[in-house]
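Figure caption, in words: inputs first, then the predicted bound structure.
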Amino acid sequence: GLADKLQQTFKKLRGRGKLTESDVNDAMREVRMALLEADVNFKVVKDFINRVKERAVGQEVLDSLTPGQHVIKIVNDELTALMGGTQSRIMISSKPPTVVMLVGLQGAGKTTTAGKLAGLLLKQNKRPLLVAADVYRPAAIKQLQVVGEKVGVPVFTIPGSQDPVLIAKQATDQALAMARDVVIIDTAGRLHINDELMDELVAIKIQAKPHEILLVVDAMTGQDAVTVAESFNTKLGLDGVILTKLDGDARGGAALSIKAVTGCPIKFAGMGEKFDALEPFHPDRMASRILG
Amino acid sequence: VSFSTKIDEEFLEELEAVLIYADVGLRTTEKIMNNVRQGVKDKKINSPADIKPFLKSEISSLLGRDLIRTKISGLPTVILVVGVNGVGKTTTIGKLGQYYQRFGYKIMFAAADTFRAAAGEQLEIWAQRVNADIIRHEEGSDPAAVAYDALQAAKSRNTDILIIDTAGRLHTKSNLMEELKKIYRIISREISEAPHETLLVLDATTGQNAMNQAQLFSQAANVSGVVLTKLDGTAKGGVIVAIKSELEIPVKWIGIGEKADDLRPFQPNEFVEALFD
Ligand SMILES: Nc1nc2c(ncn2[C@@H]2O[C@H](COP(=O)(O)OP(=O)(O)OP(=O)(O)O)[C@@H](O)[C@H]2O)c(=O)[nH]1
Ligand SMILES: Nc1nc2c(ncn2[C@@H]2O[C@H](COP(=O)(O)OP(=O)(O)OP(=O)(O)O)[C@@H](O)[C@H]2O)c(=O)[nH]1
Ligand SMILES: [Mg+2]
Ligand SMILES: [Mg+2]
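Bound structure (magnesium ion present):
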């Protein structure tokens, strides 16, 4: 992987004390390649390389490390710091119900993640309510109902309704009467460039007043991750991101791209299809995964 | 790229950025850029206006080579649909049903995703929409058994086209890939030449991981073509250039929306044109 490539780059460097600009430039070529292969956004890679260059040039190589290892350490630390600093939890409101809204592109894993969040909150002695606000996708409501059964959480629907805004509003209005203290709204997948559907999300936000709006993103997303996250963030304001399907071998560069460009914290990692497969996001593990 | 007046280093960097942003990938982008630089040396490319036609002809001829559409022949023609989770397999099958029923073909769907919540119900709704037969078992049953049942039913009911939906699975999960191999074996054992088409569904928003998906699914189920979905978004799906040039797997269909009509046969020229939009 990158470690071996950098060892090669720095072979001729053994015994020298400081990293010169040309040493660092050689190394940065390898790092740039690794990041692009990992699907980190082109512009984010450029900015990141410049930051790391500044930190690396003139640095005294630690006795315990080779120059290659030293550069990796700088890159790894920088990546981890960039993606870190987040609490992997749903912020529970002092005035229940806490309302969580899941949004994102088609197929990202929202419905499955809604079930996982519900299961997690149950374990934390909360009383979650799942809300089936996807009236478009065939059998979407049935899917969430089956999910609710599997995790032991009730599912709110308005049978026959074609109005996601009304469904979300009624669920949040009636939650306390139903003795539920966290509302999880599952919305239909949509394109960030579909104005009508993005306006619908704004309408749901206005009516349901979510405390947390979380963007669900597939870990295998490529360069498009930045465009998508920026659009959702500009339109709605995001409180966090959940990265799904991290149980595969996608390097997950989208994580860095999204955090770097929007500042949105990555709160959770989806690690499988079962409903217990939701973990806190670990920036250090993500950093080494991205570097390969 | 279209505003430049001369081919200088800055222009070439912009071109490289366009390709990377389209998810063409580093290795394939470097190959393309080398060809461009050679084209400039050989005076085949003399101004920025020459670049797009040059690339269009290069890339679309690569993508179009040996592109054979599905032949609807024996009874039934069997199409197996595979891919990772959430890419659009079930929806694509509905769209294929819509496409083929216009020609008067008798269509059957097999709901061989017996794992995911409401997977059978989802395909059932599509079957109703496009007047297709459907074979379903209960949740948790053996997907290979569903495939087997559907093959027998399709033969006995003079079905023209049987399309088999499978559960989304990550290519890294060896037990799930073994399950896929078993489904494939059952199909090929029951009808000679089947499956006549194995379509790998890829999401256009996917980055370089699409290459890993294509490699491993191809090993398990002899993939004969790709359906590239969600091209109605902003992602370009550039990964399919490497998939064609390195694995020889062609794109046969593109998905451009969520409705029954949102499926088109893949047109290499249009695809390359869209890369530069
Ligand atoms: N392996 C794996 N699969 C996942 C994960 N999260 C979701 N999935 C799968 O991804 C597919 C899509 O999940 P859904 O929950 O239906 O996605 P969605 O965002 O609700 O889809 P739409 O409502 O159509 O936009 C399903 O097959 C899920 O089982 C994960 O973390 N790992
Ligand atoms: N915009 C857009 N959405 C699509 C397209 N194809 C499928 N979708 C949507 O993507 C989501 C997932 O589609 P499915 O057909 O359930 O995907 P799948 O591969 O069968 O998913 P699993 O069986 O869970 O692995 C749904 O919301 C579809 O409507 C497309 O071409 N464009
Ligand atoms: Mg859903
Ligand atoms: Mg499906």
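The first strand of chain A starts at residue 98 and ends at 103.
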